[in-house]
Amino acid sequence: MSDTGPAGAQAIRRHAARPHRTRGQHRASWAAELSPLLAGTQRRYTAVVGSAVAGASIVAMATAAGMPSGEEPEPSRAVSDIAALAAEASVPEDALPAGASDAGSVPAGAAPGEAVAAADTAERVSPVTAQDAQVKWRPMLDHITITSLFGQRWGRNHNGVDFDAATGDPVYAAYPGTVKHAGWETGFGNLVIIDHGNGVETYYAHNSKIVVAEGQWVDGGDQISEAGNTGRSFGSHCHFEVHVNGEPVEPLNYLSGVGLDLR
């Protein structure tokens, strides 16, 4: 487009930085000028537009004070455009929670400092609620009656704890894991070993029947065997051990430490 018009017309020179402006004349509306500044969050542009409306109102009042009595000043284009932007930036009252105002959903009448603090707090609140751990240790029998403890017995260490059980009673995995051993083991009779990871294993001995296979994954509470009197045993029961990094530990203390108190 040429900078020269019809014969006799004055040449139009445009600003290099802002080509939509012409010297001596503003052809873009105030809305077009302010829109880029209002592209942020609603809270920011509401504050900007509010300040602009307040400034425009003061100018309008000063202009009205200097006019003869009875004459009403015509609102300028700037005031009209800013008022329109303020209306667009406002949040409808029916979209706000009951008792809240436009300023960050803070109850009406709150001090400015309280409004800012409430808005910041609302932004930092997490929608995630804390919950208890879903995986828990479980009893290995339906009914727990302790008949023998961990420690020295008959000149040797008894590496587990014995629970009274009738032959055929279901025996359950105390915690999720992979079946490491499922078969006969001298002294233990029919033995199930479950690897729970992190160096922790549990032993279930003297079973009359095994109902899982090596390599099988079991969850806590899944049946793995039936109690019995196999191996070196003097009556039907469930012998239970806990091993950490290959070494047997006192089972009842360990279970208590992970949230399962059987005593």
Walk me through what this model shows.
With 263 residues, the protein is α+β, with helices and mostly antiparallel strands. The chain has two domains: 95 residues, no CATH class; 112 residues, Glucose Permease (Domain IIA) (Distorted Sandwich), CATH 2.70.70. Helix content is 24%, strand content 23%. It contains five helices and 13 strands. Strands 1, 4, 6, 7, 8, 10, 12 and 13 form an eight-stranded antiparallel β-sheet that branches. The protein has a three-stranded antiparallel β-sheet with strand order 5-11-9, with no helix packed on it. A hairpin with a 2-residue loop joins strand 2 and strand 3. Helix 2 packs antiparallel against helix 3. The chain is elongated. The termini are far apart. The N terminus is likely disordered.
Features:
263 residues, alpha+beta, Glucose Permease (Domain IIA), 8-stranded antiparallel β-sheet, 3-stranded antiparallel β-sheet, 5 helices, 24% helix, 23% strand, elongated, disordered N terminus, EC 3.4.24.-, M23 family metallopeptidase
Summarize the structure.
The protein is α+β, with helices and mostly antiparallel strands. Helix content is 24%, strand content 23%. The longest helix is centred in the first third of the chain and has 24 residues, at 42-65.
Query: Gyration radius, to the nearest Å?
Result: 41 Å
Listing every helix as H and every strand as E from the N terminus to the C terminus, the arrangement reads: HHHHEEEEEEEEEEEEEH
CATH class annotation of the largest domain: Mainly Beta
Low-confidence stretches: 1-9, 100-105
The CATH topology annotation of the largest domain reads as Glucose Permease (Domain IIA)
Q: From the coordinates shown, what is the CATH architecture of the largest domain?
A: Distorted Sandwich
Q: Let me know the CATH homologous superfamily of the largest domain.
A: Glucose Permease (Domain IIA)
